[in-house]
Amino acid sequence: MSAAKEPMSKADYVYGLLSKEIRNAEIAGGTPLRAAAVAERLGVSITPVREAFRRLERDRLITYERHQGATVIDLTDDALLEFYRVRAVVEGLGARLAAAAITEPQLQELTALHDAMVKNEREGRHELLGEQSRRFHLAITDIGGPSFLGEHARALHDSHSVPAGASLWLDPDQAKNQLIAHEQLCRALRAGDGYTAERIMIEHVGFSGAYRLGRRGPL
Question: I need a labelling partner for 87 at 20 to 30 A (CA). Which of 93, 151, 176, 207 fits?
Answer without folding.
Answer: 176
